């Protein structure tokens, strides 16, 4: 009889494994594997009573106490019960498990257990799982904070001592790594079964319930603060209050896109996962290696890790702004719940945003079954003006078969968003429709008129008019799962729309004909018609619907012929909707071909205009819309290929460059700077890059970024994308340890871009420091046009706090291995001009040289810095503290001569007095509730669509007609930088170790970087 003794260790899924074994105990027994159950438990923790001595863990302490003699007696009593069960069955194999056995103990403490085991079993295998030291410490810290406000000092798990404690047992030791990638099927339960009974892998009926959810660093920090403030004397004690708060915070984080898996700081990971002598012993003795450890490094003795590690932000990568946002939303949730208890409807709105969600929410009425019989025809209401009704049109023979064959190829943009089991069930259970996730549910019973507008938000109307939400009425969901259809309901909605269009006609400014809505609607009506309505409508309504769809054709072709969307991804929606409409509703083959060829040509022209093939950048001037366009454009290519009209201007080479640019501009993978219409430090839906995850798209540079420098090749110190205006500086370290800066050049403003020329953003050790605030997508919001799209929301030059349309021109680039710089200039109207030189030195310094000049001495130039909320600043702003360390800012200026100033005023392109549109708020606009009086002296940050939170803004007045050097040092630095002015030249000089080095020269007479 053979025993598999599973001993954990901690944080390796032991409880999930025990639950799995209990649920499958009968099936295991049928296959000769006995999992004895005693005392109604799914584990055998009492086996650990002897080895724990006088210091049992919390569970055993509460159950048995800490009297060694009494606990030894309790152990023998428990073992007697287990032995009786085993001998009665007499199986080939037995499994016993307790994570409390995964510990170091003295030989005399283990002897009682070993004696009983050796007496009962013929042979024994001990199965033990270890996490890498860094992974174990982080997981243990997460668990500790659920019951305590105190973090333990980081130490390495004593794997060697645990294994050596079992030497007297004489067992076969099976050592395995607990890491998803190393486990069989990524699951500890399946992995354990592969050891005990390989033939049963994947065949046991009760599935594994291994939990994957963990806290984020920000939630950990809130819980630590809470435990220390409210339960300071109750360490190592779980309580319901903490558990409830934890559940609430995690729910808030996930629902608001604020959840980030916790990560230790890179330097702490390096300490914990650094190769040591014990790791080498594990490898030599058991052939066991941690996959996260570099075994080619020099091994060191295990020693204490120096430093202070009392707070979450001292051990983890941490975003203070996210923490504050979660706390604010938690308070809002509490306030709303408290108000609801008092029967007082409450709405909590973020800064600068009024929610449109009504309170309290309606519940709706469950719709009656459709009841439609096969072959039944729906009867429509007569048109408002029968005289204008088209002649009835019956389907010609074979037409339904033709369109049915086309149905699988229809584009149906974002169907995976609208046609989910959740939304389908919502309608079938309540009669409620969710037009879009960001809005409240809508009771379909309220659709008595197509002008319905329950939220007052124009974006709701765009999504409503798209009619994509009608996918819930069909007979199967996006995944192909059958569901009860509601074709009559689909017909009623479609008829209401047709009647409204017949009555209103085509009014371009009516939101029905929004280009986004029209493109989506053409696709979804074509699909609903093909899927189930074509054979259920009368010839009269068929003719009326086709007339409306021909109006869609005319409208979409007009959109595609206009210049309005020449750089916008909306071109794709328009072309796809036109193509879907043509495939289904144009029965004349020649007309259908001409329309499809027109749609394909317009997409090809858009690609040629909107994507810089050589650089892989896009004209939208928004980082979110870059990745969005990558995914959507790839899908568009596949769609036109599937309908027999392949695109000519899209290629793998283009997508390769787009993917390289995306990884270059992300400071760390899956985190985007908030440039243009993007959220701050935004994650994106990985579906947009799913098509680029292998093959030629994973270039050496992309692999370097994704692997944190472990493979591939790094990006250059300065990557230049001048066509669309990005200059990206990267120090040579792996991404999570770099100083990463972006300097923006804007020769024009893209559809989702801002007036952010000469602005810069900096990330240090993967975390944002000097930020671009992103921007809300809400249309008609004054903050969008008076703040987020202007210099006020950016680290851009500005005179008199008067934001203007700002385009920049290139004045030169200086490249090098340790230092690079870019010079830009801009006219700003009314005789005002600005030259800015931005440079980065290694991973330690950013330098900015500003030269503002004006025809009037009354103008006041301002240097603005928007700080990430996690960055703390001193009163004067010169000393800052970021998650990665100290940051110091210094400024100095040098005089320019009158002739040099004159040369600068006249040396830039364009006339110095040319008009520039001002976005300065009027007094009346400042009275708007969304535009607070002092908005232009504050910082606002977009973390969520249409919502913003208060940020931090530093402003420094700098002199006119002088060159001002701003030096920003990241970390403790000894080098100094100075600006010299001689013979019409500005020189940036670095001094260190008694030597000086000229890094760049700028010619004032020629206004050019030398």
UniProtKB/TrEMBL annotation:
It comes from the Bacteria. Residues 341-394 are annotated as: Disordered. Residues 357-369 have a biased composition (Low complexity). InterPro entries: Chondroitin_lyas (IPR008929), Hepar_II_III_C (IPR012480). It comes from Roseovarius indicus. This is Heparinase II/III-like protein. One of its GO terms (cellular component) is periplasmic space. Keywords: Lyase, Periplasm, Signal. It holds the Pfam family Hepar_II_III_C. Its main location: periplasm.
């Amino acid at each position: 009889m053979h025993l598999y003794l599973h001993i954990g260790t901690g944080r390796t899924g032991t409880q999930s494994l025990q639950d799995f074994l209990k649920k499958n105990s009968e099936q295991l027994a049928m296959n000769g594997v006995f999992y004895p159950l005693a005392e109604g438990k799914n584990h055998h923790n009492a086996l650990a009573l002897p080895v724990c001595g006088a210091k049992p863990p919390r569970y055993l302490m509460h159950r048995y106490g800490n009297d060694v003699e009494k606990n030894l007696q309790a152990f023998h009593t428990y073992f007697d019960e287990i032995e009786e069960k085993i001998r009665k069955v007499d199986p080939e194999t037995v499994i016993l498990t307790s994570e409390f056995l995964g510990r170091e103990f003295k030989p005399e403490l283990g002897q009682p257990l070993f004696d009983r085991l050796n007496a009962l079993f013929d042979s024994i295998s001990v199965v033990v799982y270890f996490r890498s030291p860094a992974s174990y410490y982080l997981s243990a810290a997460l668990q500790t904070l659920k019951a305590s406000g105190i973090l333990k000092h980081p130490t390495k798990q004593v794997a060697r001592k645990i294994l050596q404690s079992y030497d007297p047992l004489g067992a076969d030791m099976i050592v395995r790594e607990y890491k998803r990638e190393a486990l069989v099927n990524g699951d500890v339960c399946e992995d354990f079964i592969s050891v005990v009974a390989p033939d049963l892998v994947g065949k046991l009926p009760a599935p594994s319930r291994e939990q994957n959810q963990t806290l984020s660093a920000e939630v950990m920090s809130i819980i630590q603060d809470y435990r220390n403030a409210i339960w300071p004397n109750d360490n190592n004690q779980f309580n319901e209050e903490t558990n409830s708060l934890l559940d609430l915070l995690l729910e808030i984080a996930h629902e608001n896109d604020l959840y980030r898996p916790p990560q230790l700081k890179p330097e702490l990971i390096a300490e914990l996962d650094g190769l040591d002598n014990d790791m080498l012993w594990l490898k030599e003795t058991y052939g066991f290696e941690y996959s996260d450890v570099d075994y080619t490094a020099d091994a060191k003795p295990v020693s204490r890790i120096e430093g202070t590690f009392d707070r979450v932000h001292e051990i983890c990568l941490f975003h203070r702004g996210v923490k504050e946002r979660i706390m604010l939303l938690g308070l809002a949730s509490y306030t709303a719940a408290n108000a609801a208890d008092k029967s007082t409807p409450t709405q909590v709105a973020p800064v600068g945003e009024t929610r449109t969600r009504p309170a309290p929410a309606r519940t709706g009425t469950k719709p009656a079954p459709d009841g439609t019989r096969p072959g039944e025809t729906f009867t429509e209401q007569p048109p408002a003006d029968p005289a204008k009704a088209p002649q009835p049109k019956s389907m010609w023979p074979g037409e339904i078969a033709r369109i049915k064959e086309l149905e699988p190829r229809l584009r149906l943009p974002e169907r995976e968003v609208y046609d989910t089991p959740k939304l389908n069930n919502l309608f079938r259970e309540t009669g409620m429709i969710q037009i879009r996730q960001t809005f409240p549910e809508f009771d379909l019973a309220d659709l008595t008129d197509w002008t319905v507008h329950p939220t007052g938000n124009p974006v709701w109307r765009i999504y409503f008019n798209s009619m994509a939400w009608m996918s819930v009425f069909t007979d199967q969901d996006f995944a192909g799962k059958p569901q009860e259809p509601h074709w009559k309901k689909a017909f009623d909605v479609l008829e209401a729309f047709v009647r409204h269009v017949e009555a209103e006609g085509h009014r371009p400014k009516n939101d029905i004909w929004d280009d986004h809505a029209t493109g989506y609607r053409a696709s979804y009506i074509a699909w609903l018609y093909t899927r189930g309505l074509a054979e259920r409508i009368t010839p009269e309504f068929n003719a009326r619907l086709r007339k409306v769809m021909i109006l869609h054709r005319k409208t979409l072709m007009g959109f595609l012929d206009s210049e309005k969307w020449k750089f916008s991804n909306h071109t794709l929606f328009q072309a796809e909707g036109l193509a879907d409409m043509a495939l289904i509703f144009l029965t004349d083959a020649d007309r259908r071909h001409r329309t499809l060829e027109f749609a394909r040509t317009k997409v090809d022209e858009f690609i040629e205009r909107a994507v810089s093939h050589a650089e892989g950048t896009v004209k939208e001037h928004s980082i979110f819309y870059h990745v969005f366009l990558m995914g959507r454009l790839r899908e568009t290519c596949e769609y036109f290929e599937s309908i027999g009209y392949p695109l000519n201007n899209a290629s793998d080479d283009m997508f390769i460059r787009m993917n390289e640019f995306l990884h270059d501009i992300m400071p760390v993978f899956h985190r985007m700077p908030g440039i243009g219409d993007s959220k701050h430090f935004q994650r994106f839906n990985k579906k947009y890059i799913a098509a680029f995850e292998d093959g030629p798209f994973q270039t050496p540079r992309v692999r370097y970024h994704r692997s944190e420098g472990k493979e591939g090749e790094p990006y250059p110190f300065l990557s230049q994308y001048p066509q669309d205006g990005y200059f990206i500086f990267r120090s040579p370290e792996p991404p999570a340890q770099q100083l990463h800066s972006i300097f923006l050049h804007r020769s024009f403003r893209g559809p989702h871009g801002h007036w952010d020329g000469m602005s810069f953003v900096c990330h240090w050790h993967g975390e944002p420091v000097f930020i671009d605030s992103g921007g809300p997508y809400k249309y008609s919001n004054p903050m969008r046009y008076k703040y987020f799209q202007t210099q006020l929301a950016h680290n851009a030059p500005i005179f008199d706090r008067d934001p203007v349309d700002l385009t920049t021109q290139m004045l030169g680039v200086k490249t090098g291995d340790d230092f690079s710089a870019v010079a830009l200039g801009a006219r700003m109207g009314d005789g005002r001009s600005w030259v800015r030189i931005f440079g980065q030195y290694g991973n330690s310094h950013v330098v900015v040289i500003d030269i503002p000049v004006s025809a009037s001495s009354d103008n006041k130039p301002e240097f603005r810095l928007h700080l990430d909320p996690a960055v703390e600043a001193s009163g004067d702003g010169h000393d800052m503290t970021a998650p990665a360390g100290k940051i110091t800012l210094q400024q100095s200026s040098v005089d320019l001569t009158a002739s040099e100033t004159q040369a600068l005023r006249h040396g830039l392109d364009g006339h110095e007095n040319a008009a520039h549109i001002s976005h300065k708020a009027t007094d009346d606009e400042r009275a708007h509730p969304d535009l607070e009086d002092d908005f232009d002296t504050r910082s606002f940050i977009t973390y969520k669509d249409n919502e913003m939170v208060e940020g931090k803004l530093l402003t420094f007045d700098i002199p006119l007609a002088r060159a001002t050097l701003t030096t920003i040092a990241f970390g403790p630095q000894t080098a100094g930088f100075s600006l010299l002015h001689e013979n019409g030249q500005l020189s940036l000089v670095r001094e260190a170790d008694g030597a000086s080095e000229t890094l760049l020269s700028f010619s004032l007479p020629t206004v050019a970087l030398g």
